[in-house]
Design a protein that fits this description.
Strand order of the largest sheet: 3-4-2-1-5-6-7-8
Structural class: alpha/beta
Strand content: 15-25%
Largest sheet: 8 strands, mixed
Distance between the termini: 38 Å
Number of strands: 14
Oligomer: single chain
Number of helices: 16
CATH superfamily of the largest domain: Glycogen Phosphorylase B
Amino acid sequence: MKSVCLIVQSIYAFDPRVRRKAEALVAAGYSVDVLALRLGSGKKHCTLNGVNVYTISLGKMRGSLARYAYEYAAFFLWVFIRVPLLMRRRHYAVIDVNTLPDFLIFAPILARWMGASLILDMHEITPEFYMSKYGISHRSWLIRLLIWLERISFDFADHVLTVNEPIQSLLVRRGLAASKATVIMNAVDEARFASASNSARTATVSDRFVMMYHGTLTRMYGLDIAIEAFGIAHHDMPGAELWILGSGSEEVGLADLIRHCGLESKVKLVGLVPSGEIPGWLNQCDMGILPFRRDIFLDFAFPNKLPEFIVMGKVVAMSRLNAIRHYFSEEALAYFEPNSPSDLAKQMVRVYGDRGLRARLAATASEEYAPIRWNLMKEQYLTLVEELRDPVRRTAAAAAATLVAR
């Protein structure tokens, strides 16, 4: 049986992008192994929806640069040793390495010498990530080092995936060969949401208007902005509520802010919700809220949460970020200026008061999402894997790409 290995330094069950790829490969007839981090006291090895998952108990307690370096080095060494051992009996045709870090692509170097082709899936742009997280100048030695590591990493890979066109354009400007790059968007697997989207919304109060966020509770995602905006707008929105699903470092601070704004009866911190239950929760809301802050990193972000709201037919209030505006027009999303509670408050009131506007925005977002939906992205990914697995098809595809470029 044809075999593929995916490598990701995160918990596989919580990484929707890696799970979508792995399960698509299984459905296409591949034997799939994943090397990932272990969740708490979870098993060293398990099978999840046909995917063999091997894990290491390393934790993910990042904060300082030193901690990042330790975790990256430990995971790199584990992959470096484990992949060749698995390769002897699995004979991987393709190994799909998912960032961060970029240099993780070098961990399966022995497997490459044994015949495997390497894909580097660049989930993030590392230099911008560190500039955002630590306030590091783009002129610093560390950022110059990260750009160099990024360059040698995508040069070493046989093919490179990026999550959107603005990121791919940035990497091409930094030296990535356009001929070896493919965009595979963070589209949602619509099969997971089909039953929930077809069912009627359940509501205990007929005039309730629910706004919802689901995801990690960190400062960069701007939940404090959403709460402050609701504090401004709620008097003009009878029956409106804001539900925040997830956990993270900002949870205590957000609870304090809710009390400070006197919104305890209107804003609910639901806590962490299993991914399988997300569609049911989204079915209960009227409006998605994605109040991301703008910075050099988030301007390139395309969150998984956005297409989840869209496939459920929900209108979305979204920060006006460059990568999002590349794909969605002003007629598709209720855009507001990033970092501005007052502008978000205006959009809350505007959408709340106009049912027709909600329907028009949701319909347009669905139309504009159609060219990047998962069924199309999945076929592009499976075609790429097949080309890398088959040298003859790979050569033919490269020749075709050269002719198109001319």
